[in-house]
Amino acid sequence: MTASKIALVTGAARGQGAAIVRRLLDDGFRVAAADVLTDELAAGTADLGPEVLPLALDVTSAADWTAAVARTAKAFGGLTALVNNAGVLHRAAVADETEEAFERSWRINCLGPFLGVQAALAQLRTGTGASVVNTCSTGAVRPFPQHAAYGTAKWGLRGLTQILAAELAPDIRVNAVLPGPIATPMLDSTTQSRLAERIPAGRLGVPGDVADAVAFLVSEHASFITGAELVVDGGQSLTIG
Q1: How buried is residue 167: exposed, middle or buried, by Cβ count under 10 Å (0-12/13-18/19+)?
Q2: Which is the catalytic residue, given 120, 150, 230, 233?
Q3: Can you tell me the distance from the alpha carbon of 172 to that of 138, in angstroms, rounded to the nearest whole number?
């Protein structure tokens, strides 16, 4: 293991986050795996050894973020990569949307990554090759009906990624992955089947597809890439309707 490669990954208990943790571990990172789902996180990381540090983290809490970054730095000696993967998918027609649900989507999907960057900034600036990857969505490329809360939050995160990339260069690279339909618990089986029929690639994505994209963006192979948006959707964005 190389001590200089240290990542903090949110939403790490399952799905894409769990896949990202394992992929970065394979690439020689030490990984702080963070999630609000602490029981699932503990079970999912139990076999990964001392190079993975499970952390309880509510991404909407600045205090939680401060504690998570401090624990990561204490355990591993620093932080070189932040992967803002935590998110929630929320659907509702505009007429049925509530103030509470709309705000919750924004707090988790957009405010959370902002608080994470703020909390991690000092640690990221002390290392070399530091990077941030934000998980956006194809919902930030095209409009999906009944996704006002989720879609606007992801559009906001897409804009935040661009602003951070411009502001934090050259010390910290900031990029985004924009997954399309990925086979995770966020999509029920009926939705997965419906979406798979319309993907040009002929299948849904799997968490490893997103993990591979993240691994590239935090690696030295992407050292000249910042402010980029890597769409991982099997061609979904090419379709109409």
Answers
A1: exposed
A2: 150
A3: 24
DSSP helix/strand/coil, 139: helix
Q: Which of 147, 217, 231 is nearest to 186 (CA)?
A: 147
Count of CB atoms situated within 10 Å of the CB of 200: 11
Q: How far is CA 147 from the centre of its chain?
A: 19
Q: Are 23 and 208 in contact (CB under 8 A)?
A: yes
Give 156-212 pLDDT, tens digit per residue. Answer: 999 999 999 999 999 999 999 999 888 876 677 777 777 777 788 888 889 999 999
Q: 159: which residues sit within 8 A by CB, 6+ positions away?
A: none
Nearest to 90 by CA among 168, 149, 132: 149
- Structural domains of the chain in order of their starting residue, each with its CATH number: 6-234 (3.40.50.720)
Q: Give the model's pLDDT for residue 2.
A: 40
Q: Which residues pair with 9 in a beta bridge?
A: 33, 83
Q: Tell me: the pLDDT tens digits for 10-38?
A: 999 999 999 999 999 999 999 999 999 99
With residue 52 as reference, give the H or E element that holds it: strand 52-56
DSSP of 8-50, one letter per residue?
Answer: EEESTTSHHHHHHHHHHHHTT-EEEEEES-HHHHHHHHTTS-T
Q: At what angle do helices 148-168 and 99-106 cross, to 10 degrees?
A: 30
Residue 176, strand partner residues: 134, 229
Known catalytic residue: 150? yes
CB-side neighbour CA atoms (13 Å) of 228: 16
Q: Which DSSP helix (H) or strand (E) runs through 160? A: helix 148-168
DSSP state of 121: H
